[in-house]
Amino acid sequence: MKEHKPKIICFLCKWCTSAGADLAGTSRLRYPPAILPIRVMCSSRIDPAFIIKAFLNGADGVFIGGCHPGDCHYQEGNYHTRRRFAILKKVFDALGLESKRLKLSWISASEGVKFARVSNEYTEKIKSFGENPTKSNVFL
Amino acid sequence: MSKKIGVYVCECGPNIADKVDIKKILAEISSLSEPPERIIITKKHKLLCSNEGQDFLADEIKKNELTHLVIAACSPRDHDITFMNVCKRTNLNPYLYKLINIREHCAWIIPDKEEATEKAIQYIRAGINRVAYQAPLTEKELDSIPDVLVIGAGIAGIESSLSLASEKRKVYLLERTSSIGGKVTKFEKILPHQGTNLDIIREKIQAVQENENIKIFTETEVDKAVGFLGNFEITLKNIHNDDQKNEFKVGAIVVATGYNLFNPEKIPRYGYGKIEDVYTSMEIEESNSKTGKILLKSGKPPRTAALIHCVGREEKGYCSRVCCNYMFKIAQYLKEKRPDIKITEFYQDLCLPNKADQEFFVDTKNKEVDFIRFKDISIKQKDKEKFIEYTKTDGKKEKIPAEMIILAPAIEPAAGSEDIAELLNISLDEMGFFQEAHQKLNPVATSIDGVFIVGSAQNPKNIPDSIMDAQAVGGKILTQLIPGVKLVPEVTISEISDAFCTGCQTCLSVCSYGAIYFDEDRNISVVNEAICRGCGNCVASCPSGAAHAKHFTSPQIYQEVLEAIR
Questions:
Q1: Is the ipTM of this complex over 0.85?
Q2: Is residue B284 domain-shared with residue B393, that is, in the same domain?
């Protein structure tokens, strides 16, 4: 059987996690090609509908990276992200989507190593879950 | 209308060229062309950010009459602005361009060339799909006023005013009390070299008073402040007479409201206000500076003195940073007046953060001042004798007599800080000091552009740190508000559609900047373009889909996501 190559959408806030991902690159760290970055100004821009849509269209995982609590470039955007994320997990469960495929992580501009580590661990986890079953069972 | 999208891949020397198969990328991307709706032109270049590379891009944009531009190269943090400027120079709207980072996100992290190439293609495809949905945006220009309002005429406010005032920039210096100079004027000497304080302060006060570009208002408070960087409308009022008002406009506001001392009466074990000859450090400074003497109530100089640091430190939850040093100074005052005086300083932790502090501490210690680290401490009176009862860090309980007791109360935010925070729409931290935009990276700015904090309004500070703040703010304002130069506010901001807004005001509750106001007449929320920073929080929170983030619209992000996972 051909190995499943997961596709993971990774929303990065411009100020912290995106810079952390850049640092992972400039430090020549290794993490899998499955991580597909989408840059936004702030993690609070991420409408939960983006994530649902990504899943319904076949993403195997969605990973949101924001500034650490207290470090948001926009004061408290990441606190709003955190609340929305908690609610989204419940919505996922209610809809029969797999909330275990969602990830939220705080990664600062100086945490290239953390970005690479989280990306590696998360990709491994998604691989172990196999293909996103929603892809073949669209019900919405 | 048909779209002509140029996709240019940068080799970045060997950085990208060696790690991904650029030839393959170009071939695959070219095959996405769907004439006549979407024509894709692809090319590679050795180094697009070089002058030669920029000229090459400009030529390509003009020659091919590109409607959109995608560059696959490095991080937007490196060259987004470079390529936006190339767009501007060729009259392609810079918001119709997108930089895809195939270096940090592909070339440098994936050792397998084939895998790296595959990801780069996927990533560029997503970018092309996004750029096709991007819309042109126009930068606006706003008139700005270079003048500045400084709230508080202590050392931080005075220095701010002096760094800013010039022929082309008026400073309005506001003081709640009847005279300028602040608490520093009460000190007899300035540590660590014990120079006479008044010389330095008098010079500064005089410079402010003589400067015709600084207008001083004493016994005055801010009544109203509305606006944004470059354009605040200010109303001041006299504290004794509400009708006596002054109105003017400024471009920036500096909050220099300083500090108050914690009231030690709140902790009864120190005996302040109940036991005779228990003083605060400020009372000793004032007495010394006015009369040149430090005496007991009885009129005699003390033979023994206990100097207690850290009063209110546990209650407040922070170290006030400056007290250790000034308590050494007070010990030296007492020694100068009566060399045989027995002095004991009680402390919980010594705070010696500045380069001259250690030497000053050793110098004080060498003048036969005892230092005792305590866990608990209280002041007791029996008949006419006063005692300091204390538990040392090893748990041993001891007591010593003292004729004079001097307390170093915690430094707390100035009274009225809440009112100023509310007027200016800035926040206070959990300790009640003004909250900086970023503790480490932007300590003199606030969440509101154009409102700054200096000195102890932000954190307990000594004189040099307050001066440093004032000069830093001077630098910030001088570069942000240049007389005659217009301001270009953020372009990628939120907008709220009149037609879709239901007036629920959810957006108002999530905005950290107060950038959205509610129009009562039309029953809709409206974005103030000069204040919005474009985080997009209101957009994600809007239940009716009325809010949009320019350049980060939902269709743009959807298109990018869908193509990335296709």
A1: yes
A2: yes
